[in-house]
Amino acid sequence: MKVDIVQKNYTMSEKLGDIILKKTNKLSKYFDDDATVKVMLKREKDVFKMEITATFNGSYIRAEKSGENMYENIDILLPKIEKQIVKNKGKLSKKLKSNAFKDQNYLYMDDMPVEKPSKIAKFKSFKVYPLSIEDAVDMMNMLDHDFYVFINKENNRLQIVYKRHDDDIGVLEPVE
Question: What are phi and psi for residue 14, nearest 5 degrees?
Answer without folding.
Answer: -60, -40
